[in-house]
Amino acid sequence: MSTQFIDGLAVEIDGQGPDLVCIHGLGGSSNTWTPLFPALAGHRVVRIDLPGSARSAALAGGPGSLDIDAMVDAVAQACQRLDITRAVFLGHSMGTIVCQHLAARQPGLVSRLALFGPLVCPPDAARPNVQARADKAAAGGAAAMQEIADAVVQGATARHARETQPLAVALVRESLMRQDPLGYARSCEALARAQSAVLENIAVPVLLVTGDEDGVAPPAAVQAMASRLRDARMVVLPQCGHWTPLECAMQCQALLRDFLPAP
């Protein structure tokens, strides 16, 4: 494994073979993907911390300075610097929006998409709540991030995970608590303003994985998303919330082994 910093982005690179790029969601990091590594053998796995998340530097500017387009540009630039010309992209939550825009904008770069907890953009009713979380993180600092982490664990993981998978729940909480509060706030603002990519222009195979208890990417919304894609397969995992790769790692591994082309 090696870690590089590309224009302020922390990028972890593991293995050899065809390129596979992983994009985490809001409050996530490269470690969102660690439980899925057994299914990624035979690939060069590139895990990117998005701008302002985890170990990556925030973009310059105040409130409203980060948006989905800037995240897409940062990922594309990192791929260019790493000589990635064609890759499978894995995304979680907000990272699925980044992946969709990248696939629509640069179709030659993306060979297929595996999206976990996928959403095209927040529903209008949810946008004020995401913005309120941004305001809370920006004003409250580390103490606010602890409150946000506890709320996310309670609201975005399945009861089964909270009762039987303490390590997965701890990783969700730790991932959020370790975020820079201002970077997290800017990411929330970007998500609150996110708009849908032109899904109808995405021609590659797409795997959509959600949980039956995922309130962020509920099955009905993911089904509507699938109907806009040309080649989509949707899977709903039982007793699973929004943090799919952590709550249901073994099931996600099995789905990826079936979906990924042989290296």
Helical segment tally? 9
Compute the CA-based radius of gyration.
17 Å
CATH topology: Rossmann fold
CA-CA gap between termini? 19 Å
Supply the helix-strand structural class.
alpha/beta
The CATH class name reads Alpha Beta
Give the SSE string. EEEEHEHEHHHHEHEHH
The residue fraction in helices comes out at 40-55%
How many discrete domains?
1
The biggest sheet, with number of strands, parallel, antiparallel or mixed sense and barrel status, is:
8 strands, mixed
Taken as a percent bin, the fraction of beta residues is 15-25%
Label the overall shape: globular
Average pLDDT figure: 96
Strand ordering within the main sheet: 1-2-4-3-5-6-7-8
- Tell how many strands the DSSP assignment holds: 8
Give a structural overview.
With 263 residues, this protein is α/β, with parallel strands linked by helices. Helix content is 43%, strand content 17%. It has helices spanning 68-81, 94-105, 127-156, 159-164, 166-177, 181-193, 219-228, 244-247, 249-259; strands at 2-6, 9-14, 19-23, 44-48, 87-92, 110-116, 206-211, 232-237. The radius of gyration is 17 Å and the shape is globular. The mean pLDDT is 96.
Fold topology:
Elements: E1 2-6, E2 9-14, E3 19-23, E4 44-48, H1 68-81, E5 87-92, H2 94-105, E6 110-116, H3 127-156, H4 159-164, H5 166-177, H6 181-193, E7 206-211, H7 219-228, E8 232-237, H8 244-247, H9 249-259
Parallel strand pairs: 3-4, 3-5, 5-6, 6-7, 7-8
Antiparallel strand pairs: 1-2, 2-4
What labels describe this entry?
alpha/beta, 43% helix, Rossmann fold, globular, 17% strand, 263 residues
